[in-house]
Amino acid sequence: MKVAVVGATGMVGEVMLKVLEERNFPVTELIPVASERSVGKIISFKGNDYTVVGLERAVAMQPDIALFSAGGGTSLEWAPKFAEAGTTVVDNSSAWRMDPTKKLVVPEINANVLTKDDKIIANPNCSTIQMVMALAPLHKAYKMKRVVVSTYQSVSGTGVKAVRQLENEIAGVEGEMAYPYPIGRNALPHCDVFEANGYTKEEMKLAREPQKIMNDNTFSVSATAVRIPTAGGHSESVNVEFENDFNLNDVRRLLSSTPGVVVQDNTETNTYPMPIYAHDKDEVFVGRIRRDESQPNTLNMWIVADNLRKGAATNTIQIAEYLVAEHLI
Fold it and tell me: Catalytic residue at 126?
């Protein structure tokens, strides 16, 4: 299988290459793709060296699949060109997520919506993925009415410039700023740009994407997204109101039996999810599972995942694995 990784020299692109290797994806020819300034660089993959090529050259090479993590503008311009050349694109940007003609996929939840005709497939937002991994089985069992989520997102979600800003601040070094304020010893209630309604783009992704993934708009989501000074891993405080009542032990059992979800929930041993433990792992970790005592049929949870892996690279590659397994490419 001829596989292009578009944005191969970026943070998510590098993790994609790592995950492709770890999961032994059937790559017969790797095509690392990046912007003009990175063309000619050498990428190492499975003990072999590959030269980074530009987008035009990559389209001409007609890969079977192209895994995109190069930003929305690049995806909007180039994903259709790859698709026209017969390549199936799995895109990690926000460019196609809410396009009604494109599928938005978390494989454990809705991979079965994919067909051979889907030439551009959208990967959801990192915070959305970890949230819906925990919510989907509970929605099926108890029917969600309303979700209130507050996120605590790492700087790696912004990119390498933000990671460098945090490292500089820890070291006491002045440098380029990714954020309008210091991030060290701080919390910024500002992820992505603000929209006319006062919410950020990130918060609106959390509100809209779950409905599309679950093909259900009978529940609503209200979000507040906060950037915190952790290098990697996103955390979420999630409050869910259901139509039907639940038993906490049943909730824990249901989540424990969900593929890709790990329950860490024992207050007696101080066992709960944290970014430091989610680092470099593909699972979504759920803990602090407790009843909201202020109103009926309502649950509180704490959800943590590695945003560069399940939140981005791993989910993208799982989509590709499904396409291969079902002979859709």
Answer: yes
DSSP 123: P
* β-pairing verdict for 2-6 and 234-242: unpaired
> Which CATH number does the domain 2-124+312-325 belong to among 3.40.50.720, 3.40.190.10, 3.30.300.130, 3.40.1130.10?
3.40.50.720
Backbone dihedral region for residue 194 (phi beyond 0: left; psi -120 to 50: alpha; all else: beta): beta
Tokens of 277: 């433990």
> Hey, is 1 helix, strand or coil?
coil
Residue 234 catalytic? yes
Other C-beta atoms closer than 10 Å to the C-beta of 172 total 7
Q: Tokens for 204, please give them.
A: 């609106």
Cβ neighbours, 10 Å, residue 185: 8
Query: In terms of pTM, does the model score above 0.70?
Result: yes
Residue pLDDT, tens place only, 37-74: 999 999 999 999 999 999 999 999 999 999 999 999 99
pLDDT of residue 323: 98
d(CA 61, CA 66): 11
- 127-307 fold: Dihydrodipicolinate Reductase; domain 2 (3.30.360)
């003609």: which residue's tokens?
101
CA dist., res. 20 & res. 67, Å (int):
11
Cα separation, 12 vs 56, whole angstroms = 21
Identify whether the C-beta of residue 24 lies closer than 8 Å to the C-beta of residue 17. Answer: no
Catalytic residue among 126, 139, 190, 279: 126
Q: Name the nearest CA neighbour of 97 among 304, 326, 315, 322.
A: 315
Which residue in the list 190, 191, 234, 327 is annotated as catalytic? Answer: 234
How far apart (Å, rounded) are the C-alpha atoms in residues 159 and 68?
15
Which sequence spans correspond to the domains of the chain?
A: 2-124+312-325, 127-307
d(CA 280, CA 19): 10
